[in-house]
Specification:
The structure is a single chain. By secondary structure, the protein is mainly beta. It has 2 domains: 23-135, Acid Proteases (Cathepsin D, subunit A, domain 1, Beta Barrel); 140-240, Cathepsin D, subunit A, domain 1. Helices cover 5% and strands 45% of the residues. It has helices at 60-65, 95-98, 237-240; strands at residues 8-10, 23-30, 33-40, 43-49, 57-59, 73-80, 83-92, 105-109, 118-123, 126-131, 141-144, 146-148, 151-159, 164-171, 178-181, 185-187, 204-211, 214-224, 233-235, 244-248, 253-257. The strands form 3 sheets. A 6-stranded mixed β-barrel has the order 3-4-8-5-7-6. Strands 13-14-19-15-18-17 form a 6-stranded mixed barrel. The protein has a two-stranded antiparallel ribbon with strand order 1-16. The protein starts with 7 loop residues before the first strand and ends in a 28-residue tail after the last strand. The relative contact order is 0.23. Residues 1-5, 12-20 and 264-285 have low confidence and may be disordered.
Length: 285
């Protein structure tokens, strides 16, 4: 990722029994977004896995291509990581989420359809595991989750070197950097060629991000305008990728686990998902 010299300036504002492992599947990272293959009924394709999205979304062009016409939503069974999940996907134009990705994106899988699961996400190699119950190895940290308008959030602190803000940040697996609400932040320097809202190429830097007792410095950052009230921003994959994430939406808990503590769960047929060339996709039917 190329280094830019923009800085982000902050401003204070007022303000039980079951299988241990149910199923897993390969995933990969495209421009900071976690992507995996799945199917909503007969609609098979590649979907962004965004744990910060309160509602799952089906791309408008995908819906129209599959005969849904002007339907506002699609209800069907989501097949993901060998699980079959009753799901409702809202139909939305996702061109802004997918235009810079090398994969044709069929939709976004959000927190709503994963609410009954423990979600484990590894980054190297990228692998998604869903279970009803999962034994937990020792964690680097265990963070309480607070749902903000359907979005899972954790507490974190950000600073530009002069101002420090503490608040709730979404677990954003659909973007690369830290994204900060544009109501509390601005760019100190901004070129007309830079997208301040970029999900995949965050153009600024935060002086520090403190999460789970650890402080990262010179953290890539961008602005965000679509946050629910009560959220200060979102933390993206270039932060989460140093851990294995284990998100339990039933118990409102996020465990950050060392990758060395989690054994690989590769099936014989899936191989190593860290190489996109070796994956199987279902972008056309």
């Amino acid at each position: 990722m190329r280094r830019l010299t923009s800085a982000l300036a902050l401003a204070l504002v007022s303000a039980a029994a079951g299988r241990a492992v149910a199923g897993d599947t390969a995933c990969w990272i495209d421009n900071g977004a976690v992507v995996t293959s799945a199917a909503l009924g007969d609609i098979a394709g590649d979907f962004i896995l965004d744990l910060s999205a309160p509602h799952s979304l089906l791309h408008l062009t995908t819906a129209q291509g599959d005969g849904l016409g002007d339907a506002a939503s699609a209800q069907d069974t989501l097949t993901l990581a060998a699980e079959h999940i009753p799901a409702t996907f809202e139909v939305a134009d996702l061109d802004d989420r997918s235009w810079d990705l090398p994969t044709n994106i069929s939709g976004v899988i959000g927190a709503d359809v994963l609410a009954g699961y423990v979600v484990e996400l590894r980054f190297a190699p990228c692998r998604l595991t869903l279970s009803r119950r999962m034994a937990s190895p020792p964690a680097v940290a265990s963070l309480p989750i607070e749902m903000v308008a359907g979005t899972p959030t954790v507490a974190a602190t950000i600073s530009d070197g002069a101002t420090t803000l503490t608040g709730r940040f979404a677990i954003d697996t659909g973007a690369a950097g830290v994204r900060v609400s544009d109501t509390v932040a601005r760019f100190s320097r901004l070129s007309a060629r830079v997208d301040p809202m970029s999900r995949d190429h965050p153009p600024a830097r935060l002086a520090t991000l403190t999460l789970a007792g650890e402080t990262g410095r010179d953290v890539p950052a961008a602005l965000q305008s679509d946050l629910p009230a009560g959220a200060l921003g979102g933390i993206g994959t270039n932060v989460w990728s140093r851990y294995v994430l284990r998100l339990d939406l039933r118990r409102d808990q996020l465990m950050l686990i060392s990758p060395d503590a989690v054994s690989g769960r590769r099936s014989a047929k899936s191989g190593d998902s860290s190489h996109r060339a070796g994956r199987r996709t279902a972008t056309s039917r």
